[in-house]
C-alpha cells in the first residue's frame, strides 16, 4: 500500500521524535528550516505538513511560506503560550487545518493527520488530461473539447486557411494559438489582428503597411501587420467587422500571396498562414450582402467550431479550479477552493459569456469570499441545491447553532476549552464557529 507521507518542519529536529507514536503509520521527512521545506515540497508533493516548535521563526516569514503553500493542509504543535499572542492566533486561523498544544494527545493528533490527508486528497487537483504539449493550456476533459483538440491537431499540419466559429469568450483565440503552436510554423510569429478594433481610416496602412510620404505623418517606411506575420500565422479576429473595401484587399492577398504597402508600387511576397475567426454567422453575413462571398470561400477552407461552454458543462469545475490556481496570489489567506454548492451552481449556470464569464466570476469570487470555501453567493449565482423554502430551515439551523454556542460559552465562564468539550467539538472547530457567527473573542 502507498504509505502516507508527511512533511514535518521542526525548529529543533529532535522534537519530532517525541511524536513517534502518533506518526507510526506515516513516512515522515523531518526538515529544520523553511528553505529545506520548500525544496522538499518541490520534489515530493506532500499533502500534509506538521509544524513543530516554530514559535521562534519570524512571523512574517512563516506567514509568507504558508500563503505560498496553501494547497497543503498544515497542522501545528504549539506551546500553549503561543496562543496568547494575537499574531499567532491569526496565523493559526488563517493557515492551519488544526493545532494541538502541549501536552499533545497522540491519538487525537493521529486522527487529525488522517483527516487532514483526507481533505487534502479531496482538494488535490485531478491529474491533468493527456494532451499534446502545445494544447496543454486548453483545459477540459469533455467529449466536445476532445473533438476540438483532435481537429486542431489535424488542421495544424495543413497550410490552408482555417476559419474558427464560436460564441464570444468560448476560446477561439486560444484555439487559433493552439493551431499555430502545433503547426510547422510554430517557430514563426503569431500575429493577432482584431479587425473590429482597427481605426477605419488607418486600417489599410495597419494591415498592409505604408511607404514613406504615402500620407501626412508617414515619416518612414513601415511594414503592416500582414507582413510581420511572414513565416508565421496571421490571426484575423472578428473578421466579419472588416469593411468591404478592405475585404477586397485581403482577398487579393489570399489569392496572390503578395501585398503592396500603401503608397508603394513594389510588390512584396508574404508567406503567412491565415486563421480567421468570428462570433457572427459568416454565411448569414454573406446572404445579407455584408461579407464578400468569394472571401468567405477563401477563408472557410478548414472550419473549426468551438463549442459554447454550456455544451461542455463537465469542464466547468476543471476550468474554475484552473482559474483558482492561476490566480492563487489574489486569494485571501485561508481560502481553499470551492464549496460543493458552488461547484454545483457553476455546473447549472448556462454561461452566456462562456469561459471569459467563468474567469471573471471566479476571480471576483476569490476576492470577495469571506470563508474558507467559495459559495454560490460569492460567484453571484443562486444556490442550485437549496430546495424552495429551504432558506427558512437553513436560517433557523444557523440561529440554533449560534444560540448553543453562546449558551455553552456562558456556562463555561468563557473558557473555550471547556465550551468545546461540552459541545463535543475540537477547539479548532469552536474557533471556526465563533468566527463564522462573528462572536468576538477575548
Ligand atoms: N479550454 C480553455 N481552457 C483554458 N482557458 C480557456 C479555455 N477556453 C478559453 N479560455 C480562456 O478564456 C478567455 C477567452 O478566450 P478567447 O480565446 O479569447 O475567446 P474568444 O476569442 O472566443 O472570445 C481567454 O482568457 C482564454 O485563455
Ligand atoms: Mg476573441
UniProtKB/TrEMBL annotation:
Keywords attached to this entry: ATP-binding, DNA-binding, Nucleotide-binding, Transcription, Transcription regulation
Residue ranges constituting the Sigma-54 factor interaction domain according to the UniProt record: 138-367
KW Iron-sulfur (keyword) present: no
Domain of life, per lineage: Bacteria
Keyword Metal-binding attached: no
Pfam family name, one: Sigma54_activat
PROSITE patterns given in the database record: SIGMA54_INTERACT_2, SIGMA54_INTERACT_3, SIGMA54_INTERACT_4
PANTHER family: TRANSCRIPTIONAL REGULATOR-RELATED, TRANSCRIPTIONAL REGULATORY PROTEIN
Protein known as: Sigma-54 dependent transcriptional regulator
Amino acid at each position: 500500500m502507498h504509505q502516507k507521507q508527511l512533511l514535518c518542519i521542526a525548529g529543533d529536529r529532535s522534537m519530532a521524535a517525541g511524536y513517534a507514536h502518533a506518526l507510526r503509520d506515516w513516512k515522515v521527512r523531518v526538515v529544520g528550516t523553511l528553505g529545506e521545506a520548500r525544496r522538499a515540497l518541490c520534489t515530493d508533493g506532500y499533502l500534509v505538513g506538521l509544524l513543530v516548535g516554530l514559535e521562534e521563526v519570524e512571523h512574517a516569514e512563516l506567514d509568507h511560506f504558508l500563503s505560498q503553500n496553501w494547497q497543503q493542509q498544515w497542522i501545528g504543535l504549539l506551546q500553549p503560550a503561543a496562543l496568547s499572542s494575537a499574531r499567532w492566533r491569526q496565523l493559526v486561523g488563517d493557515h492551519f487545518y488544526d493545532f494541538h498544544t502541549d501536552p499533545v494527545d497522540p491519538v487525537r493528533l493521529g486522527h487529525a493527520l488522517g483527516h487532514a490527508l483526507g481533505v487534502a486528497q479531496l482538494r488535490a487537483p485531478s491529474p491533468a488530461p493527456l494532451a499534446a504539449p502545445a494544447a496543454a493550456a486548453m483545459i477540459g476533459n469533455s467529449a466536445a473539447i476532445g473533438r476540438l483538440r483532435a481537429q486542431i491537431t489535424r488542421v495544424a499540419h495543413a497550410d490552408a486557411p482555417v476559419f474558427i466559429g464560436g460564441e464570444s469568450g468560448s476560446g477561439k483565440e486560444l484555439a487559433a494559438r493552439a493551431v499555430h503552436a502545433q503547426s510547422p510554423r510554430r517557430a514563426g510569429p503569431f500575429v493577432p489582428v482584431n479587425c473590429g478594433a482597427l481605426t477605419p481610416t488607418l486600417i489599410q496602412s495597419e494591415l498592409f503597411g505604408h511607404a514613406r510620404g504615402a500620407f501626412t505623418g508617414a515619416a518612414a517606411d513601415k511594414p503592416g501587420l500582414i507582413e510581420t506575420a511572414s513565416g508565421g500565422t496571421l490571426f484575423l479576429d472578428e473578421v466579419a467587422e472588416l469593411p468591404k473595401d478592405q475585404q477586397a484587399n485581403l482577398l487579393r492577398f489570399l489569392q496572390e500571396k503578395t501585398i503592396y504597402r500603401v503608397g508603394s508600387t513594389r510588390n512584396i511576397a508574404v508567406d503567412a498562414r491565415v486563421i480567421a475567426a468570428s462570433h457572427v454567422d459568416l454565411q448569414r453575413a454573406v446572404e445579407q450582402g455584408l461579407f464578400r462571398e468569394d472571401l468567405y470561400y477563401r477563408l472557410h477552407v478548414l472550419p473549426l467550431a468551438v463549442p459554447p461552454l454550456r455544451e461542455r458543462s463537465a469542464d466547468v469545475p476543471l476550468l474554475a479550479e484552473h482559474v483558482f490556481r492561476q490566480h492563487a496570489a489574489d486569494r485571501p489567506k485561508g481560502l481553499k477552493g470551492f464549496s460543493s454548492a458552488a461547484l454545483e451552481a457553476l455546473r447549472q449556470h448556462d454561461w452566456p459569456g462562456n469561459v471569459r464569464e467563468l474567469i471573471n466570476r471566479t476571480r471576483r469570487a476569490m476576492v470577495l469570499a469571506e470563508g474558507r470555501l467559495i459559495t454560490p453567493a460569492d460567484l453571484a449565482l443562486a444556490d442550485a441545491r437549496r430546495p424552495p423554502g429551504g432558506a427558512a430551515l437553513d436560517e433557523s439551523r444557523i440561529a440554533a447553532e449560534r444560540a448553543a454556542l453562546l449558551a455553552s460559552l456562558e456556562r463555561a465562564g468563557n473558557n473555550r476549552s471547556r465550551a468545546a468539550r461540552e459541545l463535543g467539538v475540537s477547539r479548532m472547530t469552536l474557533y471556526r464557529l465563533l468566527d463564522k457567527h462573528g462572536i468576538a473573542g477575548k
